[in-house]
Amino acid sequence: MQDMVNVRYIVDDVEAAVSWYQRLLGFELISNHAPAFADIKRGALRLLVSGPKSSAGRAMADGERPVPGGWNRIHLVVDDLADEMKRLEEAGARFRNEVVSGPGGQQVLLIDPSGNLVELFQPAGK
């Protein structure tokens, strides 16, 4: 796993997160320690989904607890954004916004079951 990029998302429900990422985005299960955490992968991305019972879900010294959501996100490149959005919508996925176009390409934000964002990005010229 030395060549993997590791990202941790705080989630409300580890099993729901694993199922969602596998079913909708093609992630593969590495290990499952639910309800604490699981790690899944897609290509060189290892995503740790950590629930409230994980060490990552523990309160900080000041009492603040990690929560899902925010604007940080993983970024997945797709060949055809419109086709991918259609497939995901048919599977019941929710999007945070409409497609945004810029000089580098087009993007849209997909919302996981806990409110974390996944950016789907189609580079310009594809």
TrEMBL record:
* Key words of the record: Metal-binding
Q: Does the keyword Metal-binding apply?
A: yes
Q: Supply one GO BP term.
A: L-methylmalonyl-CoA metabolic process
Asked whether the keyword Lyase is assigned, the reply is: no
Residue ranges constituting the VOC domain according to the UniProt record: 3-123
Going by the entry's taxonomy, the superkingdom of the source organism is recorded as Bacteria
Query: From the Swiss-Prot or TrEMBL record, what is one GO molecular function term?
Result: metal ion binding
Q: Which CDD domains match?
A: VOC
Q: Which PANTHER family match?
A: METHYLMALONYL-COA EPIMERASE, RING-CLEAVING DIOXYGENASE-RELATED
What is the protein name stated in its UniProt record?
A: Glyoxalase
Q: What organism, scientifically named, is this protein from?
A: Sinorhizobium saheli
